[in-house]
Specification:
CATH class of the largest domain: Mainly Beta
CATH topology of the largest domain: Immunoglobulin-like
Number of domains: 3
CATH architecture of the largest domain: Sandwich
Strand content: 25-35%
Distance between the termini: 78 Å
Shape: rod-shaped
Number of helices: 4
């Protein structure tokens, strides 16, 4: 008899079809079946009953053939049963005058399946550059149906699409319509790939997002014009009387904050780090920007075109 033995039946697969072995009878009278479905094994709470189910072995006249009974009978429940409940059912044969005993009482559970859609990455995507070693990975949260609990999103970051050697693994709870997490320790100018999937209770899982979404972590080169504008506004240059040497030094310091490849010194005092390039063009770039804002005089600009001017740069 099926379903039985505590079998799980998805509620979205209704109507439920019951199957059972055909009855035999030595009576001349044609027989039919009666079925009861209840929510308890003692048939106290009956939720569905059918009192006249014609056997498949019935002849065209409606008489059941006792000589060639059907190997199996089926009955499709015509109504929708309430989900997430355990049901018990049994069946018996009767011809109106004679009634056989009920069968055993198998049980099955009608459950609402949990479905979790694949989350959709929104940042960073399509070789997008991130301006931080700790970018916020963002996805549109998965659409979830059913009684899902303990929802988790697992983010994985690697340097290749096989995800054999993971650089970062993070598990976070859902964040409403959008879910995000912030990995740490990503290196500059390095291409990464990342993926994410959602799960419920550690059991129900969905497929990963496309694993071949390349990600590049790189800081945008600071805009000289913007930095000079900011420093000029903060120092009041040229009205404050700050010397152009000090002004350019502050600009260089700010550029160093914006980009680790920049050095801290623009003059010829102090040590230069490994890979430092002593070039006049760096100072010229800053001065040209200053000049474009009418913030430096020609004489001051001229001072910084000599060979003694150096810059620690990462260009």
């Amino acid at each position: 008899m099926e379903p039985g033995g505590g079998q799980l039946v998805r509620t979205d697969e209704q109507p439920v079809t019951l199957t059972f072995a055909a009855a035999t009878s030595n009576s001349e009278r044609p027989f039919w079946y009666e079925i009861e479905i209840g929510s308890d094994p003692n048939s106290v709470d009956i939720v569905h009953t059918s009192s006249r189910i014609i056997p498949l072995s019935a002849t065209q006249s409606g008489r059941a053939s006792q000589d060639t009974p059907s190997a199996g009978e089926t009955y499709t429940v015509p109504e929708t049963l309430t989900a997430d409940r355990v049901y018990y059912w049994h069946v018996r044969a009767t011809d109106g005058a004679n009634t056989g005993p009920y069968s055993e009482t198998p049980q099955f559970k009608l459950f609402t399946p949990i479905t979790i859609a694949t989350p959709c990455p929104t940042f960073p995507v399509d070789n997008e550059f991130a301006g931080s070693q700790r970018p916020s990975f963002k996805v549109n949260s998965s659409k979830i149906t059913g009684p899902a609990t303990n929802i988790k999103y697992r983010f994985e970051v690697a340097r290749n699409g096989r995800f054999a050697n993971l650089t970062t693994v993070l598990a976070v709870g859902p964040g409403g319509g959008k879910t995000s997490t912030i990995p740490g320790g990503l290196e500059w100018n390095t291409r990464y790939k990342w993926r994410v999937r959602a799960s419920a209770g550690g059991r129900v899982k969905v497929r990963w997002t496309a694993p071949s979404l390349p990600r590049r972590r790189s800081r945008r080169r600071p805009n000289h014009f913007e930095v000079v504008q900011q420093v000029a506004a903060e120092t009041g240059y040229l009205q404050s009387g700050i010397h152009v040497t000090n002004f350019v030094q502050i600009v260089a310091e700010r550029l160093a904050q914006e980009d680790p490849n920049w050095g801290r010194r623009i003059n010829d005092t102090g040590p230069l780090g490994n890979g430092t390039v002593a070039i006049r063009s760096t100072a010229r770039t800053i001065i040209r920007t200053v000049s474009s804002l009418s913030l430096a005089r020609q004489a001051q600009t001229q001072r910084f075109t000599g060979a003694s001017t150096v810059a620690s740069a990462g260009f």
